[in-house]
Write a structure and sequence with these properties.
The complex is a heterodimer of chains A (183) and B (350). Chain A has 183 residues and is mainly alpha-helical. Chain A folds into two domains: 96 residues, RNA polymerase sigma factor, region 2, helix turn helix motif (Rna Polymerase Sigma Factor, Chain: A), CATH 1.10.1740; 86 residues, Winged helix-like DNA-binding domain superfamily/Winged helix DNA-binding domain (Arc Repressor Mutant, subunit A). Chain A contains nine helices and no strands. Chain B has 350 residues and is of the alpha+beta class. Chain B has three domains: 47 residues, no CATH class; 187 residues, no CATH class; 67 residues, no CATH class. In chain B, 29% of the residues lie in helices and 21% in strands. Chain B has seven helices and 14 strands. In chain B, helix 4 packs antiparallel against helix 6. The termini of chain B are far apart. About 27% of the residues of chain B have low confidence. Classes of the chains: A mainly alpha (183), B alpha+beta (350). At the A-B interface, helix 2, helix 3, helix 4, helix 6 and helix 7 of A face helix 1, helix 3 and helix 4 of B.
Chain lengths: 183, 350
């Protein structure tokens, strides 16, 4: 069966009935955001790779607990975030320390250089306060609304809004992108 | 319009929040003329355009391969288990009196032989199906130190990954409270004289000569719709494993004592009654629920165990009288998956 056009809830339902092709579609559809969140959490590709695998194994094992009341992406975000936190708590992985000089570098680098800018933005994102980065990730990577992110994070929507704004202010302060620099 | 307000409006607009159109227009005009707000908008644009870190091209395939392997293992378990053990659940039980088997030396010997043979099959099946097996297999009795790190059912408590402040589906605790941090019911616990035991599997034919009655448990076991009833509990000599059986059933449920190590001391988990499978152990009745995620005012951090899990003690007391663990402990932790605080007391050696 071709699941390319099925929505996430339908895919979960089919996967729950044993249709592994449906689960495969979920994996292909969402690996990118899960990996990206984990990458920004750990600042390390190998750890992000491990985390993404763990996330989807957990999703597979706990599909019965997904009741469809929340969006699949809200549920997936929560599992992703918690998996990363668990990996740190269990000592399996540690976020790579961020050297402030790596972030400060942008102000003096040639920001017309797309690669340098991209690297610096990634570093700056990883250097955000964890709760601010989590909120920004929920909204900008997983596409959750403030209310949905609030549900996943266990905080009011207004708190998510504040954290996202704070994250962006922090990025603006550290990146100092001049007129025309970011195109 | 103030810079802060203008930037907040632009930020919210980027996230597709519903905003007052006139206010947003004013904010945009402000950002065009204000250098610092303009820089903020430029940053937003740059970050928005930033491509997200891309996973290795083969990552989805590797994930899918793992999932398919796990699914295959579960299928093996599902087909192996009925041939070697009575499936869980009351409907599958044969209505025989286990006490008759335990009393009759001939039946007891036959049952023990059957159990030994079944155990071999179960162990083979367990190896073949590794950690994804949902049908629990009885491991040999282990030492206290070994047992405290055994995760008997890695498949059931998905919520082990849920930290304290993660929201989600609810899970029932044994004190009737509903915690908002778990996504799955528990594997199966009983409380015997306040000490918590975790479901380890089903056995048929137990040599009762080596067991002794240690009390009763008020539980419906895995019968979700039945009211809890008082059931006699037999224990191994070292009390690390207990056995219970329903009336008129030859199926015996085995449970292992739940322990943890902290500061070179073995602690046993304590809880009030646990009415049925699916409920989690909770704080004993004499210990108030903390009011904050940090445990206050009930608990104060005492230190970390060898796995880095923060261990709490009662405020004003020492860890010698007991320790508490916050929800959200990692999957390898004995309290993994529990959506609430758990309480542990030093093991009293007889």
């Amino acid at each position: 069966m071709n699941y390319a056009h099925a929505d996430d809830v339908a895919l979960v339902a089919a996967a729950r009935d044993g249709e592994l092709d449906a689960f495969e579609e979920l994996v292909r559809r969402h690996t990118g955001v899960v990996y990206a969140h984990a990458y920004r959490f750990f600042g390390d590709g190998a750890a992000a790779d491990d985390a993404a695998q763990e996330v989807f194994i957990k999703v597979y094992r706990s599909m019965d607990t997904f009741d469809g009341r929340a969006k699949f992406s809200t549920w997936l975000y929560r599992i992703t975030r918690n998996t990363c936190l668990d990996m740190v708590r269990s000592g399996k992985r540690r976020p790579l320390p961020i050297d402030p000089l790596d972030v400060a570098h942008v102000a003096t680098s040639d920001i017309a250089d797309e690669v340098a800018l991209s690297t610096t933005i990634e570093t700056a994102l990883s250097a955000l306060a964890p709760e601010d980065r989590d909120a920004l990730s929920a909204v900008s990577l997983f596409g959750l609304s403030y209310a949905e992110a609030g549900t996943a994070l266990g905080v009011p929507a207004g708190t998510v809004k504040s954290r996202v704004f704070r994250a962006r202010r922090a990025l603006a302060a550290v990146l100092e992108i001049p007129r025309g620099g970011a195109r | 319009m103030e810079c802060n307000e203008a930037q907040a409006l632009v930020s919210a607009a980027l996230d597709k929040e519903t905003l007052d159109a006139a206010s947003l227009q004013t904010a945009k005009e402000h950002c065009r003329s204000c250098e610092s707000c303009n820089a903020f908008v430029r940053t937003l644009a740059a970050v928005q355009r930033q491509p997200k870190p891309e996973p290795p091209a083969d990552l989805p395939d590797r994930i899918i391969a793992r999932v398919r392997a796990e699914a295959a293992a579960q299928q093996v378990a599902a087909t192996a288990a009925p041939a070697s053990a009575t499936p869980a659940g009351p409907s599958a039980e044969r209505r025989l009196d286990p006490r008759a088997i335990w009393r009759d030396p001939k039946k007891r010997a036959a049952a023990a032989a059957w159990a030994s043979a079944a155990a071999v099959v179960l162990v083979v099946a367990g190896i073949a199906t590794y950690s994804g097996v949902r049908q629990i297999l009885i491991p040999p009795l282990a030492s206290e130190a070994q047992r405290e790190v055994v995760v008997l059912d890695s498949a059931a408590p998905e919520s082990s990954s849920q930290p304290y402040n993660g929201a989600g589906a609810t899970a029932q605790q044994s004190d009737g409270s509903v915690a908002g941090t778990a996504t799955a019911a528990s594997t199966g616990y009983i409380s015997v004289n306040g000490t918590v035991y975790r479901y380890a599997g089903l056995v048929q034919g137990i040599d009762s000569a080596t067991l002794r009655r240690v009390g009763s448990a008020n539980t419906a076991l895995d019968a979700a719709a039945d009211p809890p009833a008082s059931i006699d509990v037999l224990a191994s000599p070292d009390l690390t494993r207990v056995f219970v059986s329903r009336e008129q059933s030859e199926t015996v449920y085995a449970f292992d004592r739940v322990t943890r190590l902290y500061s070179n001391t073995v602690y046993v988990q304590r809880s009030g009654d646990i009415a049925r499978f699916g409920e989690w152990p909770s704080l004993p009745s004499g210990i108030p629920q903390p009011q904050t995620p940090e445990g206050s005012p009930t608990f104060t951090p005492d230190g970390q165990d060898a796995s880095g899990v923060t261990v709490y003690r009662r405020t004003g007391s020492s860890a010698d009288s007991g320790i508490a663990i916050a929800p959200g402990s990692p999957a390898s932790d004995p309290a993994a998956g529990n959506p609430g605080w758990t309480w542990w007391e030093p093991l009293q050696t007889p």
